[in-house]
């Protein structure tokens, strides 16, 4: 039975397809726990996949720190250029592929969002001097904390995906601050998950 792909203006099809699949219970409730605000953890990211024949729909979520090394608004020309390079990579590079590297991106959308949290003066260490308080340490600034995240959707076309198909991900090669990537997948015949690390970058989807 084909995976439904509803069309809504302004929303990428991969994001919607996966949202419908996971929201309707294809994955168990614990797998959805990463959707809560406490899931923002540097070094960790999440990738969801819907596999059908030779098409893969993907949703990727990660703290911006894992990709850019900072979470504040880009201030310098170098930071703005870095974010532009990250966007281009996410829009054009398959987040997963087969060992034959025969997957290609047919649609993609990248969003960088987040929020600022205000803090009172008592939240700061009194031992920090005035100059040090004005420096940004991994997205933490005087009086506020920045939490920004990337939300990426991709639709891929691959060579025919067979039973027990092995995949690799280029995310950890490109973004070395990523220490762990949780992968969750669903297909017409089942579901599963895997945890990728810098030393384990392949996983198998049982079609």
Automatic annotation (TrEMBL):
Signal sequence, renumbered to the chain: 1-33
Annotated keywords: Signal
Coiled-coil ranges (or none): none
Region described as Disordered: 117-148, 188-207
Keyword Signal part of the UniProt annotation: yes
Name of a matching Pfam family: ZrgA
InterPro entries: ZrgA-like
Keyword Secreted appears in the UniProt entry: no
Protein name in the entry: DUF2796 domain-containing protein
Organism: Marinobacter iranensis
Lineage: Bacteria, Pseudomonadati, Pseudomonadota, Gammaproteobacteria, Pseudomonadales
């Amino acid at each position: 039975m084909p995976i439904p792909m509803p069309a809504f203006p302004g929303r990428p099809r991969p994001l919607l397809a996966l949202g419908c699949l996971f929201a309707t219970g294809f994955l168990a409730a614990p797998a959805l726990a990463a959707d809560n605000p406490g899931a923002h953890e540097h070094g960790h990211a999440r990738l969801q996949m819907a596999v059908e024949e030779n098409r893969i729909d993907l949703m990727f979520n990660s703290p911006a720190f894992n990709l850019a090394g900072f979470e504040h608004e880009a201030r310098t020309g170098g930071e703005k250029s870095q974010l532009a390079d990250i966007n281009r990579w996410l829009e054009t590079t398959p987040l997963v592929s087969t060992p034959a590297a025969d997957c290609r991106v047919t649609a993609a959308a990248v969003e960088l969002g987040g929020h600022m949290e205000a803090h009172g003066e008592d939240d700061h260490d009194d031992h920090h001097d005035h100059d040090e308080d004005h420096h940004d340490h991994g997205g933490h600034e005087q009086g506020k904390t920045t939490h920004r995240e990337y939300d990426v959707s991709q639709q891929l076309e691959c060579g025919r995906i067979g039973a027990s198909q092995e995949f690799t991900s280029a995310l950890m090669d490109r973004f070395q601050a990523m220490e762990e990537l949780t992968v969750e997948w669903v297909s017409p015949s089942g579901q599963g998950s895997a945890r990728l690390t810098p030393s384990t970058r392949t996983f198998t989807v049982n079609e």
